[in-house]
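Give me the fold.
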Amino acid sequence: MANKKLRSAAGAAEEQLKAGAKMLQAQLATAAEAAAEVASKAKERLPAAAGAAAEVASKAKDAVAKRGGRGRARPKPVMAPPAPSSTPDDSWTVADLREEAKRRGLSGYSRMTKAELLTELGG
């Protein structure tokens, strides 16, 4: 009787582990899809950085293929940061504008609105 309970508990633990592994494979596939999206956005915005982003996406896809996982969830779109040499405009997010202000050494950028950041950065 005790042996039967042990087998039942071991079976339940094995099922939990399999379910966890399946969930992690789906998350890995989602991350690979997000990396591919970043690579395509980088190619559009930063041709020089596109190669590095494509390499990361390729490695992520290879990892998913190696493990045989398939993702079901669609990743959220990920935008590549704007090119550092380009002039800021309304298409930039506040986060991107703040990052550019930080890069340029401006002070007080964290309290500025998008309009103020655009004015300060010359956009």
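The chain has four helices and no strands.
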